[in-house]
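Tokens in:
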């Protein structure tokens, strides 16, 4: 015995199952346009959800809260660093180092500037030595007599120029006039001897030269040393007008047409000038090659 209504329901269910199987078979192939559209909707809603008013899964309120938290965090961090730097600068003197592990000996500097410390020039060819003259003239501008008399004081020679007082008090500097260099001042001979094969080279400390190929050297000042009155040096903050003393070497008789090595050393108490693995500690070495 069959029930008519029950048979109809069974037929409808079988029809639905067949439709679902067909849809599943179609889904196993390429995605339909509806599937792509659904994925695009999901991405769009993630970027901006108008119902919940969320962007990238966050509301404007949560983003504002995050910005406020980060602002106060970095502001506190900057305040702590600034406070520690302020406390550090309170205990450190800008005029002299608080701690020193090793004080290196003073070095030696020469002028005019020469690449590789080799002085090569031909007396009869001005273009080979003109740049040396220009370098010396530029370097000695700060040593002009009028400028030194205006800025610095005339000190007695042979003694240290000690200046007591507060460390932040401005210090005076002793005069070192360009005229002290005499034949190497560029005032009497504008070419500093390069036009005659008798070049002048300026040093910034004591010097002792070679004995063989350099037969005659004149020193200015004649003592070939740096007078004590130019020391101590109190630093650039308080010793504003300080002018470094110089020693000029006037090579009046040097072997021509060959390289002549010259070594200048600092001599003084506590000065190191014999370090084997560093030939520029307390000394300087250069070469003269004068062609005729």
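Residues out:
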């Amino acid at each position: 015995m069959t029930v008519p209504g029950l048979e109809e329901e069974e037929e409808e269910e079988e029809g639905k199952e067949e439709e679902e199987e067909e849809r599943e078979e179609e889904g196993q192939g390429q995605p339909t346009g509806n599937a792509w559209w659904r994925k695009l909707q999901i991405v769009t809603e993630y970027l901006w959800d108008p119902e919940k008013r969320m962007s990238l899964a966050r509301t404007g309120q949560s983003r504002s809260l995050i910005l406020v938290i980060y602002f106060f965090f970095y502001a506190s961090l900057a305040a702590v660093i600034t406070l520690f730097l302020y406390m550090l600068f309170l205990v450190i003197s800008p005029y002299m180092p608080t701690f020193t592990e090793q004080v290196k000996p003073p070095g030696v500097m020469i002028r005019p500037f020469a690449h590789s410390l080799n002085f090569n020039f031909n007396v009869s060819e001005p273009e080979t030595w003109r740049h040396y003259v220009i370098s010396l003239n530029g370097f000695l501008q700060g040593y002009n007599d009028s400028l030194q008399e205006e800025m610095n004081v005339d000190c007695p020679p042979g003694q240290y120029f000690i200046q007591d007082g507060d460390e932040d008090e401005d210090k005076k500097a002793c005069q070192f006039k360009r005229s002290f260099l005499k034949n190497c001042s560029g005032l009497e001979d504008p070419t500093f001897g390069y036009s005659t094969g008798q070049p002048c080279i300026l040093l910034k400390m004591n010097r002792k030269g070679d004995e063989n190929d350099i037969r005659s050297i004149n020193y200015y000042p004649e003592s070939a040393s740096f007078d004590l009155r130019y020391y101590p040096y109190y630093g650039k903050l308080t010793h504003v007008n300080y002018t470094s003393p110089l020693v000029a070497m006037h090579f009046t008789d040097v072997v021509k047409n060959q390289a002549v090595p010259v070594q200048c050393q600092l001599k003084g108490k506590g000065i190191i000038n014999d370090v084997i693995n560093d030939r520029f500690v307390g000394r300087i070495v250069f070469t003269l090659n004068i062609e005729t």
